[in-house]
TrEMBL record:
Pfam families: Oxidored_q6 (PF01058). The lineage of its organism: Eukaryota, Metazoa, Chordata, Craniata, Vertebrata. PANTHER family: NADH DEHYDROGENASE (PTHR11995), NADH DEHYDROGENASE [UBIQUINONE] IRON-SULFUR PROTEIN 7, MITOCHONDRIAL (PTHR11995:SF14). One of its GO terms (cellular component) is mitochondrion. This is NDUS7 protein. It comes from the Eukaryota. GO terms for molecular function: iron-sulfur cluster binding; NADH dehydrogenase (ubiquinone) activity. SUPFAM superfamilies: HydA/Nqo6-like. Gene3D superfamilies: 3.40.50.12280. GO terms for biological process: aerobic respiration; electron transport coupled proton transport; mitochondrial respiratory chain complex I assembly. Residues 51-175 form the NADH:ubiquinone oxidoreductase-like 20kDa subunit domain.
């Protein structure tokens, strides 16, 4: 069968997707079920580092009530599947963001990494079970923010761990062009620094949309 797609007053004929086998159809439906379960029960591991942590706590309060989306804070990384990096990540704090067995990290100016062997560092990110996700909250976590040129600050937590969602904090004192931002960074008005609780909540909703599109079991099945 065909599906009619209306686009700029023109009708384009496209064939509807048909799975190549019955097994792939079953795997696709299992993917949908697993993704629904994952996005409906996100358990963040809080990593509050500065003023953004106050807004992160505000999101858990009754006014925004993140529990209605299945988001429940956990105190242990072994029970969490999301880490919210909220605030300024310093060079001294960066090793606590990740766990490295048999080696330690020494960060230079701006987050350049050097390795010191045989120093066990027992920390957060690698203790989280797979699949795991990271939300970077605020300008400082995204790229150093106001302290970008400081000798003691990592210029973005994505230098240490892979980041899935960025929650920006546009400056309220300077004009910002929001039209150039990608969809998951777009806001109708400047939120200031730190970003508001609803900005973080919007980032969580975008993470749920990202999880909904995952096809982990299908990738495994096609190997």
């Amino acid at each position: 069968s065909s599906v009619q797609v209306q686009k700029s007053s023109a009708v384009v004929q496209r064939k509807s997707y048909v799975p190549s086998s019955r097994g792939e159809y079953v795997i696709a439906k299992l993917d949908d079920l697993v993704n629904w379960a994952r996005r409906s029960s996100l358990w963040p591991m809080t990593f509050g580092l500065a003023c953004c942590a106050v807004e992160m706590m505000h999101m858990a309060a009754p006014r925004y009530d993140m529990d209605r989306f299945g988001v429940v804070f956990r105190a242990s990384p072994r029970q969490a599947d999301v880490m919210i990096v909220a605030g300024t990540l310093t060079n001294k704090m960066a090793p606590a963001l990740r766990k490295v067995w048999g080696k330690g990290w020494e960060l230079g100016h701006g987050g350049e990494v050097g390795i010191i062997p045989n120093i066990p560092v027992l920390q957060v990110y690698d203790q989280m079970p797979e699949p795991r996700y990271v939300v970077s909250m605020g300008s400082c976590a995204n790229g150093g923010g106001y302290y970008h040129y400081s000798y003691s600050v990592v210029r973005g937590c994505d230098r240490i761990v892979p980041v899935d969602i960025y929650v920006p904090a546009p400056c309220r004192y300077h004009p910002c062009d929001f039209s150039s931002l990608p969809p998951f960074l777009s806001f109708s008005s400047p939120s200031g620094c730190p970003p508001t609780a609803e900005a973080l909540l919007y980032g969580i909703l975008q993470l749920q949309r990202k999880i909904k599109r995952e096809r982990r079991m299908q990738i495994w099945y096609r190997k």
